[in-house]
């Protein structure tokens, strides 16, 4: 997705060979025009999948997840990383090791909002080693839902998550794929759609 790649080049900061900071438009500041385009692109790619719900994870998955849900005309649910006092008893949980925070979180979603019969589109901001996406897969499966696919804003193809998820048979659609962050340069992998 050209608009996204342009933003990444203009505003992204390569923090190391493994981490890209995109705080100005995705992870802290959020660009609504870009998120609208991101949501429409996900919706276009998954329009024939009869999606009933978008599942994402707080906090950076919410903006792209919401915009995808809006275009698809379905509700969005986000998994929480910390348990809230207001959360009900029928919680579905999974353990996720965070790539950026280097700590384990128990993520959860209420069984009230995802259930058998749901056809889920999982959305997240980044795909690195796949732990967040796998945690969301586990939540959806524990709740009895089907997973129609996984939409990622930025996939780092040099890490293992994409391969892992595709080997498990999931359809993974990434809007920008980074082949390398070496020498402080973002090198993109050319996607099939381009
Ligand atoms: P994974 O679970 O696939 O290892 O990592 C994905 C999660 O870690 C995403 O939800 C994202 O928040 C965070 N993450 C992984 N790599 C990066 C990165 O290079 N930059 C930023 N900003 N977040 C990342």
Automatic annotation (TrEMBL):
EC number assigned by the record: 2.4.2.22
Reactions the enzyme catalyzes: XMP + diphosphate = xanthine + 5-phospho-alpha-D-ribose 1-diphosphate
InterPro entries: PRTase-like, PRTase_dom, Pur/Pyrimidine_PRTase, Xanthine_PRibTrfase
Binding site for xanthine: 20, 27, 156
Localisation per UniProt entry: Cytoplasm
MF GO annotations: xanthine phosphoribosyltransferase activity
First-listed, main subcellular location of the protein, grouped into a coarse class: cytoplasm
Domain of life: Bacteria
Domain Phosphoribosyltransferase: from-to ranges: 36-156
Enzyme class, first EC level, given as a word: transferase
Known pathway: Purine metabolism; XMP biosynthesis via salvage pathway; XMP from xanthine: step 1/1
Function field: Converts the preformed base xanthine, a product of nucleic acid breakdown, to xanthosine 5'-monophosphate (XMP), so it can be reused for RNA or DNA synthesis.
Name of protein: Xanthine phosphoribosyltransferase
Gene name, Swiss-Prot/TrEMBL: xpt
